[in-house]
Amino acid sequence: MRGAAVASFHRIYSENYEDHVRYARIRVGSTEAAQDVVQQAFANTLNAVEHGAQINNIGGFVRRCVHNLCVNRLFREPALSLEERLHEMTDKSTAASAELRERWREVESVIDRLPVNQRNVFLMAEIKGYSYKEMAESMELSVGSVRQLLNRAEEISS
Question: What is d(CA 60, CA 67) in angstroms, rounded to the nearest whole number?
């Protein structure tokens, strides 16, 4: 690895680590998960530099890695989060909880049938509580596009 690239990498790490963690924490929901995302982003960047990738803007590359890792984590986790929330809400011994579990399966089925972008926006809004602006930034869309996707998802799911 070239000396200038190493110096740039270390400077970016020391100057931007906390900012990246704050950015990731908003998107993934916990400090621990955010720290994991940021560490992985820096590891990916270092690996790319060590393998000869021509990166003109290391700071931008790290920022993009953090963003992409957050999005990947967000899209991997909703099914687990839905399942965990179901178990937290129910007591398996009651008839009411059996009915609730059945209703929950129906909801999951409807969500699973949504087109990918509509499903992602719906989960970010309804499960994660993201604002339109946060969803737009995460998906690299305009706020208007996010609203349209969410409206379509809600029309299909109702």
Answer: 10
- Claim to verify: residue 151 and residue 83 sit in the same structural domain: yes
CA 149 from chain centre, in angstroms, equals: 17
How does pLDDT run along the chain (158 residues), one tens digit per residue?
566 766 777 888 889 899 899 888 877 777 888 999 999 999 998 888 788 888 888 888 888 899 889 888 877 765 445 555 555 555 555 665 666 677 777 777 888 888 888 888 888 887 777 888 888 888 889 999 999 988 888 777 65
Give me the half-sphere count of Cα atoms (radius 13 Å) on the Cβ side of residue 144. 0
Is 139 in the same domain as 106?
Answer: yes
Q: Determine the Cα angle at 26 with ends 136 and 126, to 5°.
A: 60
